[in-house]
């Protein structure tokens, strides 16, 4: 099973700037980009914060392939 990140698409739909989201997560914009591309997985605590910010469930941040 492979996890595919939906984070980039969800951020684009939200209208938030990446700098705002990165600040809320206490990460750099580069680290946020790593979450978007799937280079690294978002830690569960930050995943819940991001899901709340984007108005989605935490299960929506990734899809299984």
Low-confidence stretches: none
- Count of individual domains: 1
CATH architecture: Orthogonal Bundle
Alpha-carbon distance between the two ends? 6 Å
| Share of residues in strands | 5-15%
**SSE succession:** EHHHHE
- Name of the top-level CATH class: Mainly Alpha
Question: Could you name the CATH homologous superfamily?
Answer: lambda repressor-like DNA-binding domains
Coarse shape: globular
Biggest sheet statistics: 2 strands, antiparallel
**Adjacency order of strands in the biggest sheet:** 1-2
> Radius of gyration in whole Å, from Cα?
11 Å
CATH topology: 434 Repressor (Amino-terminal Domain)
Instruction: Assign a percent range to the helix content.
Output: 55-70%
Helix count from the secondary structure assignment: 4
Mean pLDDT score, rounded? 97
Structural class: mainly alpha
Number of strands: 2
Describe the structure.
With 65 residues, the protein is mostly helical. The chain has a single domain (3-64), classed as lambda repressor-like DNA-binding domains (434 Repressor (Amino-terminal Domain)). Helices cover 55% and strands 9% of the residues. The chain is built from 4 helices and 2 strands, in the order βααααβ. It has helices at residues 7-14, 18-25, 29-37, 44-54, and strands at residues 3-5, 62-64. Strands 1-2 form a two-stranded antiparallel ribbon. The longest helix is centred in the C-terminal third of the chain and has 11 residues, at 44-54.
């Amino acid at each position: 099973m492979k996890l595919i990140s939906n984070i980039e698409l969800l951020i684009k739909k939200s209208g938030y700037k990446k700098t705002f989201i990165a600040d809320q997560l206490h990460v750099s914009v580069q680290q946020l980009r790593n979450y978007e591309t799937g280079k690294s997985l978002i830690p569960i605590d930050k995943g819940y914060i991001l899901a709340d910010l984007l108005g989605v469930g935490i299960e929506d941040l990734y899809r299984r392939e």
